[in-house]
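Example 4.3 (complexes with small molecules)
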Amino acid sequence: MIRLKLWRALALAVFAAALPAHAGEVYQISTISSLLAGGYDGDTTVAELLRHGGFGLGTFNGVDGEMMVLDGRVYRGTIDGRAHAVADSALTPFAVVVVFRPQGSAPVVAGQSLEQLEAALDAPPYSASRVLAARIDGRFRAIAIRSEPKQQPPYRPLPEVIKAQQVVHTFEEVDGTLIGFRFPAATTSVNVPGWHFHFLSADRSRGGHVLGLTTGAGLAWLEECSELRINLPARAPESSAGADAIKAVERPR
Ligand code: ZN
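Answer. The structure with zinc ion bound is encoded below.
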């Protein structure tokens, strides 16, 4: 009996390990509209998330900080501007990852604002109607990142939380990596339309959601993704957020 159980466990483990990570597939937990409406508690562990890709961003249950997924490791950006490695058992209500296989690279021009960098990344040949994943390694002359404190139920919608409780830190002359995704307008309720970046410093000690920056020298790597797979939570808010709420949270001005 015990032997049978062991064999079954082994077979499952081998099967799981052999599942092919689909080329050009974006894997996502829940939707941005659900998160913004207060869907802050998911049942997916960081370990499960990493099975679908080692590059991405998101948040943790209770919106307890900003998530950075880089080189197969997961970090939490906290309100003190620091980044911390996260245990495999941590849960996420919203995250997006890819198995990052860039199709091309381009040098980053120094002295660009976030909007100028985004415009540069938007240049052909990549399709404007597909998801783009971008990794930018380099120096940042300045970068403003934010995080937010863990929430307690009953949860308020995320625009209210961000407006009242986000904490912003600005770093100057810092080396690190931008983890970015650009979703097309057609997926507005699914993820953030346009660009969305999180930052992790090269020494992995600082990070969060990017509000603004000035580039230094760097290199951008891009992957165009034609497929999107969404893991929908069993429990989610009945309402959902619209485009205005998404903009208020992701790019508050
Ligand atoms: Zn973010």
